[in-house]
Specification:
The protein is mostly helical. The chain has one domain: Growth Hormone, Chain: A (Up-down Bundle), CATH 1.20.1250.20. About 80% of the residues lie in helices and about 0% in strands. The protein is built from 17 helices and no strands. Helix 10 runs antiparallel to helix 14. The chain is globular, with a radius of gyration of 19 Å.
Length: about 375
């Protein structure tokens, strides 16, 4: 299969960026704890960093519909993220991590919608799932390599957290270079208002976005899964093995992304998305009752599948049932709704974690059941 140039370029950009990010992120929960943070601090950093940029994502989506130069928004977003990653090296209290992580997510808020619009517009008719799946596969492949580099730098070269983060921040700037190879559409800028864009969202699309937001509320992220797995190992392996498991999670995500995207072009995204929700429910229940190393490997493999399917299928589904004229606004609204629920979800998960760790995973399972029921009601074109 010949991959459109824009999708290939954006996938390479995502590969480099995620390689950089995943040098940092497997170590992040341990770094937060080393700076005096608690489970609540982990939840706050995970949630607030997403939520404060939620409305920026709507604005970015609206601009993606209105202006011709989407490439500028993409480059700006990756630049802001790269700069924020570099600043992690200068964090000496957990509140610094909160600020810099929020800045890194701000960059994602700027670029998410225009990247998705470019992928959607560059995909062949009826093959958007393939396009988004290809992009997600490169993203996850970068994550696998980044996780392995983190393991190597921390345990073989014995670098400090700050030294590793500095190295990762420098790599992030290289992700900006290929963006200038992206070819913009020749279509003239659209004269549309923000109100028009929001009012264009159809009822099925609104329900899909709401279902995705409910899922995001209980999808509290990888940090709590990593911290939970740490308890299965002795002191010497308490950091190394969770990073290995995190790498397994990313490898699983990378391997499933592209074939799942191709499959969704034939079956539709809804069926696969419902399947991913079921898997996430089982994953949360598994983290309550299963603690052996083989069981943890299986759980992180399944979690990787969930992560890949839920992200790419939601984006593709939103793109498919949104109008062509307001696609950016639709995708921006989706990204914003998902981000907006991250703060209360992260805080709830963190509070439950400090009270009883098992309750965090029950919370994830219960909210996903609700998201599953809502998704059943969405009409698929």
């Amino acid at each position: 299969m010949k991959v459109p140039k824009n999708i290939l370029v954006l996938s390479v950009v995502s590969f480099i960026n995620d390689l950089s990010s995943k040098i940092i992120l497997p170590l992040m929960p341990f770094f937060i704890l080393s700076l005096g943070g608690t489970g609540l601090a982990v939840g706050l950093i995970s949630g607030l960093s997403e939520s404060i940029v939620s409305f920026m994502k709507i604005g970015s989506g609206y601009l993606s519909d209105k202006i011709k130069n989407k490439r500028f928004l993409v480059a700006l977003g990756y630049f802001v993220s790269a700069l924020s990653k570099l600043l992690f090296a200068f964090a000496f209290i957990w509140q610094h991590v909160l600020i810099f992580r929020s800045g890194e997510r701000m960059g994602k808020g700027i670029r998410s919608a225009p990247v998705d619009v470019l992928i959607s517009n560059s995909s062949e008719k009826g093959r958007k799932g393939t396009g988004f799946g290809f992009h997600r596969a490169f993203d996850s492949a970068g994550a696998v390599i980044g996780s392995l580099i983190a393991l190597l730098l921390f345990f073989y070269f014995h670098l400090s957290f700050q030294q590793i983060f500095l190295f990762a921040g420098i790599i992030a700037f290289f992700s900006i270079i290929p963006i200038f190879l992206v070819k913009e559409s020749d279509a003239p800028p659209k004269k549309i208002s923000f109100k028009q864009g929001i009012s264009s969202l159809s009822s099925p699309l609104k329900l899909l976005i709401f279902s995705s937001a409910v899922f995001a509320f209980g999808n509290f992220g990888y940090m709590f899964f990593v911290l939970r797995s740490q308890q299965a190992f002795s002191l010497g392996l308490a950091v190394a093995m969770p990073i290995v498991l995190y790498t397994v999670f990313q490898l699983s995500s990378a391997l499933i992304s592209f074939p799942a995207g191709k499959l969704s072009d034939r079956t539709g995204q809804k069926k696969i998305l419902l399947f991913s929700y079921i898997l996430y429910i089982l994953t949360n229940i598994g983290f309550v009752y299963l603690k052996s190393f083989p069981a943890l490997i299986l759980l992180f493999i399944v979690f990787g599948i969930v992560y890949s399917l839920s992200d790419s299928m939601q984006r593709t589904f939103v793109s498919n049932i949104s109008s062509e004229e307001f696609k950016g606004t639709s995708l921006g609204s989706y990204h914003a709704a998902v981000a907006l629920t991250a703060l209360p979800g992260g805080l709830t998960a963190g509070f439950l974690w400090d009270f009883s760790q098992e309750y965090t995973f029950y919370f994830g399972a219960i909210t996903t059941v609700i998201a599953f029921v809502l998704l059943l009601l969405v009409k698929e074109d």
